[in-house]
Amino acid sequence: MALNLNIDLDKIPTTGAGSGTSKQLWNSSLTGVEASCALAQEDVERMKSYKNSILSVGRDTGIDPAIIAAIISRETRAGHFLQADGWNSEHKAFGIMQVHRDNHPRGGKDSEEHMVQAVGLLKSFIQSMNSSWSPELRYKGGIAAYNCGPGDVSSQEVDQNTEGGDYSSDVVARAQWYKKINFF
Questions:
Q1: pLDDT digit string (tens) for 56-102?
Q2: CA-to-CA distance for 183 and 73, rounded, in angstroms?
Q3: Would you list the domain boundaries of the chain?
Q4: What is the rounded distance in angstroms from the CA atom of residue 145 to the CA atom of residue 149?
Q5: Do 161 and 152 touch, CB atoms closer than 8 A?
Q6: CATH class of this structure's domain 13-180
Q7: What is the pLDDT confidence band of residue 23, given thresholds at 50, 70 and 90?
Q8: Please, which pLDDT band fits residue 3 given cuts at 50, 70 and 90?
Q9: Residues belonging to the active site
Q10: pTM of the full predicted structure?
Q11: Average pLDDT over residues 136-149
């Protein structure tokens, strides 16, 4: 039985951004969900240029557009952290959703083709999570796997091997913020 990808994002528990991720906020001592929300808010103006593509990809793939936006916010701060050629500074991941070079990135750095490829990877990671987990935990585990790979998400502590130890919690908190402000 396939996992229903249409879940209520508010039912996914989150602690938000850890202290390392929170340091992206200038002159702020915020951490946790408040920091994730502030980071998403900083990105909202840049995110507007991707809104139509995000909505289209979300509709076509069944992934909530708020999750797509939250990953774009976390990965590249809505394109702000990308090099001019679309790669990250280490030349290991490409585009606004940072598809790893081993996955042979497709499309332009902010194209729908790029987003479709990235969201396809996310969907496969969500569906590969432990079937005994709740749908919400499988979703969160898939988000963690988007960052560190599915082999590194083997327990319900899904962020233990992610960058900053907070990747999925931060992405979920940012997505919940995008939903709260009715961005999508």
A1: 999 999 999 999 999 999 999 999 999 999 999 999 999 999 999 99
A2: 13
A3: 13-180
A4: 4
A5: yes
A6: mainly alpha
A7: very high
A8: low
A9: 75
A10: 0.96
A11: 97
Which tokens hold the place of 132? 């005994």
Residue type, 27: N
SS3 sequence of the chain = CCCCCCCCHHHCCCCCECHHHHCCCCCCCCCHHHHHHHHHHHHHHHHHHHHHHHHHHHHHHCCCHHHHHHHHHHHHCCCCCCCCCCECCCCCEECCCCEEHHHCCCCCCCCHHHHHHHHHHHHHHHHHCCCCCCHHHHHHHHHHHHHHCHHHCCCCCCCCCCHHHCHHHHHHHHHHHHHHCCCC
The one-letter code for the residue type at 176 is: Q
Beta carbons of 115 and 53 less than 8 angstroms apart: yes
